[in-house]
């Protein structure tokens, strides 16, 4: 009955049309690193929901916060001069965590796409207030994912996320980012970082710095396949943005609050962005919440122009008290339970344990990652590194066998993506990797 109603009435993200009456996985309950379906079967959650359940499922402190705050104040708006305690406390917490980067002000949103859209609008508005109203264009990276709104869609690097939605926002273009495993230039990481930084600089010179508002990138590309840039790339990008007076936006929707093994993605490269976009881990996915955080440099013209710098941008749920209370508890748990450190240690172990799979299985070209975000790159053969055709269903079959065996991983085109809760243990890694090993042994291309 549920299956039939689902097929008849629910449009599922990223899988339309899902009208084939296939038996979906009905997730009914969750606890810690596990979820349970409607038959009571247990699954190890190798996805953290969708890169987001950082503190683990059904954490008692999260449940208590939801109950207490819902009983006190679930919702009121924060437009203009209206405020509430949870949103102020969460803003204090986030800016405290981001003190080394000099981030000082938080704009709350309802999710990652909203945070990206907010960043783009704040960037344009910033330059307009500074009298540089030609600075409207944005540069992003090939292979990037910045969400579903038209700004983000226009900046997405992956064609499948944009090809049906034109005309897109003018003034958005993509340049090559460093992809160590698959690039036409070099195997030398430092050289690769320099080549891609040069590409960005040439693009800025070509389009004219006076026309460019910002460069936006994920510290580690997530949906594009967990692509970790070389050590010199982010510092070089920071230098270039400073040289040409272009704002640097870090889309930390996946990397924010610990997933990459440092509290923030760009911090892992010793770099501070001007604007950071957050969602997912900010509330561990228990409730929709996002945030766009800016430094003093970005905030300055708004403060100078006050009270005339009217920001005509805000979400009904900006500063949502229930969401912000949950966010604060989530970030406190990340600190109390040393989850950033755990993500680093267990993440290193995960990468180590994935290597034998690369050696053992013909169609795994590479295992890569940082912290508790990892990917397997699936190839037709290891010499050519040609990605397997997603239409072959190869990676879907691998993930289906894992699911049968009680482990949830994600197949995205020619990649397998792993992003478990930051509470994952080495034992959990062993279970996940052994199950994947079994699945790869059973599937052929
Ligand atoms: N930016 C990045 C880097 C993301 O990974 C995502 C979502 N996976 C988004 C933005 C969009 O976030 P949301 O789905 O919450 O709108």
UniProtKB/TrEMBL annotation:
Keywords carried by this UniProt record: Aminotransferase, Pyridoxal phosphate, Transferase
Keyword Transferase applies: yes
Keyword Transferase part of the UniProt annotation: yes
Gene3D superfamilies in UniProt: Aspartate Aminotransferase, domain 1, Type I PLP-dependent aspartate aminotransferase-like (Major domain)
Pfam short name (any one): Aminotran_3
InterPro entries assigned to the protein according to its UniProt record, in alphabetical order: Aminotrans_3, PyrdxlP-dep_Trfase, PyrdxlP-dep_Trfase_major, PyrdxlP-dep_Trfase_small
Gene Ontology molecular functions: pyridoxal phosphate binding; transaminase activity
Homology family: Belongs to the class-III pyridoxal-phosphate-dependent aminotransferase family.
Protein name: Adenosylmethionine-8-amino-7-oxononanoate aminotransferase
């Amino acid at each position: 009955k549920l299956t039939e109603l689902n097929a008849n009435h629910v449009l599922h993200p990223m899988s339309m049309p899902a009208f084939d009456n296939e038996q979906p996985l009905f997730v009914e309950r969750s606890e810690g690193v596990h979820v349970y379906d409607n038959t009571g079967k247990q699954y190890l959650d190798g996805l953290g929901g969708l890169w987001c359940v950082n503190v683990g499922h059904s954490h008692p402190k999260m449940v208590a916060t939801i109950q207490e705050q819902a009983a006190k104040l679930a919702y009121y708006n924060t437009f203009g001069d209206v405020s509430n305690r949870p949103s102020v406390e969460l803003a204090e917490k986030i800016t405290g965590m981001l003190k080394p980067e000099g981030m000082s002000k938080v704009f709350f949103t309802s999710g990652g796409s909203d945070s990206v859209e907010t960043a783009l609008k704040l960037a344009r508005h910033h330059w307009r207030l500074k009298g540089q109203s030609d600075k409207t264009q944005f540069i992003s990276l090939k292979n990037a994912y910045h969400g579903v709104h038209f700004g983000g869609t226009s900046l997405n690097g992956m064609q499948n996320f944009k090809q049906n939605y034109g005309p897109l926002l003018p003034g958005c273009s993509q340049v090559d980012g460093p992809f160590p495993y698959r690039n036409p230039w070099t195997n030398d990481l430092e050289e690769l970082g320099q080549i891609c930084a040069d590409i960005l600089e040439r693009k800025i010179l070509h389009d004219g710095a006076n026309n460019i508002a910002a460069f936006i990138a994920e510290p580690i590309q997530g949906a594009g396949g967990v692509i970790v840039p070389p050590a010199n790339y982010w510092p070089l990008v920071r230098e270039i943005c400073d040289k040409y007076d272009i704002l640097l936006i870090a889309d930390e929707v996946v990397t924010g609050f610990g997933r990459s093994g440092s509290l923030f993605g760009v911090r892992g490269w010793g770099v501070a962005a001007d604007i950071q976009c957050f969602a997912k881990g900010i509330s561990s996915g228990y409730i929709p919440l996002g945030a766009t955080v800016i430094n003093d440099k970005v905030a300055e013209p708004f403060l100078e122009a006050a009270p005339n710098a009217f920001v005509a941008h805000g979400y009904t749920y900006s500063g949502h008290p229930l969401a912000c209370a949950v966010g604060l508890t989530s970030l406190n748990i990340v600190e109390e339970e040393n989850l950033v450190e755990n993500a680093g240690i267990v993440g290193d172990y995960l990468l180590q344990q994935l290597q034998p799979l690369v050696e053992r299985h013909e169609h795994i070209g590479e295992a890569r990652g940082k912290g508790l975000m990892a990917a397997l790159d699936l190839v037709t053969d290891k010499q050519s590194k040609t990605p397997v055709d997603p239409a072959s269903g190869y990676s879907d079959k691998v993930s289906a066998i894992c699911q049968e065996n009680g482990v949830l991983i994600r197949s995205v085109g020619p990649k397998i993506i792993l992003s478990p809760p930051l509470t994952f243990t080495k034992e959990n890694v062993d279970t996940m990797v052994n199950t994947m090993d079994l699945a790869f042994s059973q599937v052929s291309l």
